[in-house]
Design goal:
The protein is of the alpha+beta class and 242 residues long. It has two domains: 6-95, Winged helix-like DNA-binding domain superfamily/Winged helix DNA-binding domain (Arc Repressor Mutant, subunit A, Orthogonal Bundle); 113-241, Winged helix-like DNA-binding domain superfamily/Winged helix DNA-binding domain (Arc Repressor Mutant, subunit A, Orthogonal Bundle), CATH 1.10.10. It contains eleven helices and five strands; from the N terminus they run H-H-H-H-E-E-H-H-H-E-E-H-H-H-E-H.
Amino acid sequence: MNTPDPPLADAMRRIEDAFVEGGERPRAEPSPDAIRAAEALLFAGGEPISAKALGEKLGPAVDVAAVLMKLKSDYAGRGVELVEAGGGWRFQSAADLSSLFAETREAPKRLPKAAMETLAVIAYHQPITRAEIEDIRGVSLSRGSMELLLEIGWIKPRGRRRTPGRPLTFGTTDAFLSQFGLASLDALPGKDDLKGLGLLDPRAASQLDIPRPSEDLDSDEEPLSEGDDAASFFVDHMEKDE
């Protein structure tokens, strides 16, 4: 039996971690009907579909990991490829064909520098509060930057610190991962990656610590109550903080 190449093997493990509970199960060749059904769901979904959600559609008898790996292998190198992004799977055009869409795709809205800096701080330091963002950036956090990032869905409130005032903590969303083509927070560029991309001065790199964010709650963080994620709640909260 052929051994999957490392990227496929890593992707398969992530699928199984997200979908299979209670230990391993035998790997079986997926049926043509299961592959066709998954292909249709992925093409028609419009948004990334998690392995678990796909499994609920296909039924418990279907090995979702095997189906996804079969589709990923079948579409590799074609004009449309199956990719993992933001905790889900979707079909998208191959990266080397992006120039074909230069005239038909609407250019994404360019974020102001302050908003990009705020997003970077949140991405690498989450969970993080407004005060902690201001401390890292060294300047006051404008309400507009947070509102914009919340509006486009790249950040979200995560919980509250168990400290006086119980300040909100923020983190990134699956939409953020999908936008930047990241399978998970673990895929954020590290110090060596940033140096290789020319985004980090090698002379400053030794003095700089690049933290690794976590999706888990901190020991001093508690989850938000149901209903605290309404947009109006955050607008009102930010107004009171100004």
